[in-house]
Amino acid sequence: MFHDVPTSPRTLTDETAQRLRQDIIHGITPAGTRLAEAAVAKQLGVSRVPVREALVMLEREGLIGFSTTGRAYVKDLTPQDFEELFLLRLALEPLSARFAAAQLKGDASLLEQNIRETSHAKTLRDVTSLDLDFHQIILEASLQPRLVRLWKSLRPELELWLSRLHRNHQTQTHATRQTTVEAHTRMLECFRGETPAAAEKITRQHIVGWREWLPSPGELPSA
To answer: What Pfam families would the database entry show (predicted)?
Structure first.
């Protein structure tokens, strides 16, 4: 179920959490899977302490839950979860784009590089990660650390949802990649030549467009 984890003592908990996180996000460990502390520790070749700490981290990120008896399990995302993620993105990202506009107008090289990498992405997994990287670049350019922290706290669930959606459209890698590149290119051009208000507006439009992808209760992608 899980892959080997690097055993550097300095980052053992973080490495354990990252391995568990990636396996959950990319469907290797599906929703509903029980994460027994001892079993996970054995599979990863680590002690139970970093596993316990990693599970707490993943609970904060919304990827796992604990039953009333204290057993960890991989959470499922519901349409209501997706709706809340949309509302939070709509609150955070247009505002961050306004703050980021001046800096990105002067230097949008990171966004340009991201779009180039996305245009050559071979897998939907890469498209998913690069898509969120693009938005994180804008957040970080806003120089608003609290906005950045709030958005980063959402990223694991955003990546989980996008990965699940993309896995349900494995034959559409090219179309998904192209749609992402075109949308991000429009945003880049706005940052290069328009006002902060325009950057805020196009980002809001982008997030509202993203909302149209969210599944209805009967169309939720399977884990």
So the answer is: FCD, GntR
* DSSP helix/strand/coil, 15: helix
Query: Which tens digits make up the pLDDT trace of 197-211?
Result: 999 999 999 999 887
| CATH number of this structure's domain 9-74 | 1.10.10.10
- 3-state secondary structure (DSSP) of residue 192: helix
Model-wide pTM > 0.85: no
- Residue written as tokens 């502390």? 37
**CATH of the domain spanning 79-211:** 1.20.120.530
Query: Region 157-174: what's the mean pLDDT?
Result: 75
Question: What pLDDT, in 10s, does the model give residues 100-116?
Answer: 999 999 999 999 999 99
Neighbouring CB atoms inside 10 A of 78's CB total 12
Spatial neighbors of 75 by CB under 8 A, at least 6 apart, are 31, 62, 63, 64, 65
Which letter does DSSP use for residue 139 in this model?
A: H
